[in-house]
């Protein structure tokens, strides 16, 4: 398995999307899997405003462990991680 991305890398990816004009307002969501934890963009927060401290941290069942409420599309992300254990990040 490849190395898991960090929450800081997730934030950096958010910034790249914003800089390229691909992440406007609160559209789009990102997450990364770090072991049994998933870091996801929170609901209602623009990608350009996401910080590592402001990410949602959930377990693979979707239970909130830390941070704000995650994106409403979290179920999609979790399904990918459960079905494809080698996947380390989801962007949509």
Total count of helical runs of at least 4 residues: 2
- Mean of residue pLDDT values: 91
Total count of strands:
5
Q: Shape from CA axes?
A: globular
Roughly what fraction of the amino acids lie in strands? 15-25%
Instruction: Characterize the biggest β-sheet.
Output: 5 strands, antiparallel
H-E string: HEEEEHE
Strand order of the largest sheet: 4-3-2-1-5
Quaternary structure type: single chain
Helices and strands in order:
Blueprint: H1 7-19, E1 30-34, E2 37-40, E3 56-59, E4 64-66, H2 74-83, E5 89-91
Antiparallel strand pairs: 1-2, 1-5, 2-3, 3-4
In short:
25% of the residues lie in helices and 21% in strands. It has helices at 7-19, 74-83, and strands at 30-34, 37-40, 56-59, 64-66, 89-91.
Word description of this protein:
The mean pLDDT is 91. Helix content is 25%, strand content 21%. It has a 5-stranded antiparallel beta sheet with strand order 4-3-2-1-5, sandwiched between helices. It has helices spanning 7-19, 74-83; strands spanning 30-34, 37-40, 56-59, 64-66, 89-91. Strand 1 (30-34) and strand 2 (37-40) form a beta hairpin. It is of the alpha+beta class. It is globular. The longest helix is centred in the N-terminal third of the chain and has 13 residues, at 7-19.
List keywords for this structure.
5-stranded antiparallel beta sheet, globular, 2 helices, 25% helix, single chain, 5 strands
